[in-house]
Amino acid sequence: MIRNIWMLCEEEPAADELPYWETINRYWERLEPEKLQDVIHCLCRRLLRSRTFEDMRIRGKYWQVIIDGTQFCSSQKELDGKSLYRTHNRGTEREYRENYYYVLEAKLVLHPKILISIQTEFVDNEDGKEMEKQDCERKACWRLMERLKKAFPKLPVCLCADSLYVCEGFFERCGGKNWRYILRYKEGSILTIRAEYRELKKWEKNYQEQIRETRKNEVENRK
Description:
Blueprint: H1 2-9, H2 21-30, H3 33-49, E1 63-75, E2 84-88, E3 96-111, E4 114-123, H4 133-151, E5 157-161, H5 168-176, E6 180-185, H6 191-200, E7 209-211, E8 217-220
Parallel strand pairs: 1-5, 5-6
Antiparallel strand pairs: 1-3, 2-3, 3-4, 6-8, 7-8
């Protein structure tokens, strides 16, 4: 492994140990981000084909993929044209602008304690304006879904996400890809969906609902 890493760095081994971080960084600067994503895809394919984690499939068929976002690298200094930003203490003497990056991750669930990244998508500020995180995150999700489908066209996927994705665009994209989904629905997200769900559950027998202390409903679409 040590020899392979030195070979990737295209440098002569300075010792019989792993390269120093500066050497590794020089390699990262030359590597295209898409190539790193390809490596992750190859690792995921090998794990899936090993059939070691077959018992984790939902209904014995669908692989659970969790989508969620996280913020990192926050700074009051300028980052770049694609970073998001928010204004704090607006209209006061203490007003300041916080610039930050936000990334959307799709995690493949192989075990209750084993979640691995299968697809990554940065949430970009396309217009350079102060954007709503909700709108930006959804757009990033649509890009992530397309890339995930392209990388794993035959993978039976069940997407799991929070109430942010309870919208027509998400449902249409899942249907077009023949994916299933499990969403955490928060009361008040889309009133028409809540009314329709309450009416349909009187007639449908194939559903599950859990009421927790937070009074949030978890609804799973099924066939």
